[in-house]
UniProtKB/TrEMBL annotation:
It is found in: Membrane. Keywords: Membrane, Transmembrane, Transmembrane helix. It comes from Candidatus Tenderia electrophaga. This is Amino acid permease. Pfam families: AA_permease_2. The chain crosses the membrane at residues 21-42, 48-68, 88-111, 131-151, 158-180, 192-214, 235-257, 281-306, 327-347, 353-373, 385-406, 412-431.
Length: 445
């Protein structure tokens, strides 16, 4: 049996139901979006920060069009790698953009793992302790590894159970906080002129990160029941659920705290907002929900990344070494994913991790839309106007985000540019060597 067919039996087609897929998509989105990013979005956008989530949802809905059209035509467990390979052929662009997607997802895991640690430590006022944050983030990533090693159905089952608790719990908190505070207190009582248009636009980069979990569904397309019909539905329902939850939470946080308080609480702004609105019970309830949400987010994300890296290996887009380990490619990729996410979670703080993820994701997303527009739109029946609108929206957000980061944290822009450059260069070297070795084999024969 060759590696590819071994992987096909490993992934068990149809092992994820429509509900399981939605749970997985919302699991990744809500884990990162609300708990990790609310403080950073409010810091940039000021009192208008709930609008940032609306803009993020609109850009994501445009972006999702390419992925839904492609997934309906060719559902696959390589998702984005498959889309890029069909759009650009098996060369440097497809391989590099796929790797950027995988890296942005690994970055997302470390982001959510650090957020988990912040919430665990919040009741003890230890959330500023860098060593404890790193240790707990690492522990969660290792736990996610063991759940994933147990197989698909455990991931889907855990995701579904956690999603029900999470969505119900967050909605309860948000509605109670809005009920207690009304809509004219906290951040919403502040003058709007404080926030500039470019900062608001830049905040949309973080909002898009809050929604990008829908790509988890694309990457697991081959495993979803009746994929030609259900992949698109799963993506649509996941984004719809998330925009409702995000808006409720943004309004609840904004009505409880002013902008300076949201920024001070930053990574644990939901817990900070719960206390004035709902007292100690609300505070501990929110922390419990945050812990379950971030846990399920990391589990679902590890699942998706290891699948994607397995597919990239099988498509011969990235090098692979067993390092003497037993087992198939998928089990190795699961381990590599966890090791890289763990290193990032230990080495970087939250805002830098989120910024790197935004740069990598937006560049990859633009390459997807351009590739589909350029070469595949007729074949899959996609409208050029929607594809170009998605491309333009990404470009505007990326430009605004870069401009704001050049002022506030130029180093992270440098890291992002170097990171993207290194990915393209390494892929070029790897693919050139592979081509030369296969052509020398042909000459030998």
């Amino acid at each position: 049996m060759d590696e590819h067919s071994a992987h096909e039996t490993d992934i068990k087609k149809g092992s994820i139901s429509l509900l399981g897929g939605i749970a997985m998509g919302t699991g990744v989105m809500i884990g990162a979006g609300i708990f990790a990013l609310t403080g950073q979005i409010a810091e940039l956008a000021g009192p208008l920060f709930p609008l940032s989530f609306v803009a993020g949802a609109l850009v994501t809905a445009l972006a999702a069009y390419s992925y839904i059209k492609m997934s309906n035509a060719w559902p696959s467990s390589g998702g984005i790698a498959m889309i890029l390979q069909k759009a650009y052929g098996p060369g440097v662009v497809a391989a590099s953009a796929s790797l950027l997607m995988a890296l942005s997802m690994v970055i997302n895991e470390s982001l959510v793992a650090r957020t988990f640690a912040s919430y665990v430590l919040r009741p003890f006022d230890l959330e500023k302790n860098g060593l404890l944050i790193s240790a707990l983030a690492l522990a969660l990533i290792i736990f996610a590894f063991f759940v994933n090693a147990a197989g698909n159905r455990s991931v889907s089952g855990v995701s579904l159970f956690m999603s029900v608790i999470k969505i119900g719990g967050i909605a309860t908190f948000a509605i109670a906080a809005i009920w207690a505070n009304g809509l004219s207190s906290g951040a919403f009582a502040e003058p709007v002129s404080l926030s500039t248009a470019d900062a608001l636009l830049a905040s949309v980069a973080f909002s898009i990160l809050a929604f990008k979990g829908f790509t988890t569904i694309t990457n697991s397309g081959g495993e979803i029941v009746d994929p030609h019909r259900n992949v698109g539905r799963t993506i649509f329902y996941s984004i719809a659920i998330c925009i409702v939850i995000y808006l409720l939470v943004a309004i609840a946080v904004g009505s409880s705290l002013d902008i300076s308080e949201i920024v001070a609480a930053r990574d644990t702004s939901l817990a900070a907002a719960a206390r004035p609105a709902l007292g100690d019970i609300g505070f501990y309830f929110t922390i419990a929900i945050a812990i379950s949400a971030t846990t399920s987010g990391v589990i679902a994300s590890v699942f998706a990344v290891s699948r994607m890296l397995t597919m990239l290996t099988e498509m011969k887009m990235i090098p692979h070494s067993h390092f003497g380990m037993k087992g198939g490619i998928r089990s190795h990729m699961l381990l590599y994913t966890v090791v890289i996410a763990g290193m990032l979670a230990v080495l970087f703080d939250l805002s830098r991790i989120a910024s790197l993820g935004a740069f990598f994701y937006l560049v990859m997303d633009m390459l997807v839309h351009w590739g589909v527009f350029r070469g595949l739109r007729e074949e899959i029946g996609a409208r050029a106007s929607v594809l170009l609108a998605a491309l333009a929206a990404d470009a505007v957000v990326l430009a605004a985000f870069t401009a704001v980061k050049l002022q506030s944290d130029p180093a992270v822009v440098v890291y992002a540019v170097i990171g993207i450059g290194v990915v393209f260069m390494l892929e070029w070297v790897f693919l050139s060597r592979r081509r030369s070795s296969s052509s020398s084999d042909e000459h030998a024969h």
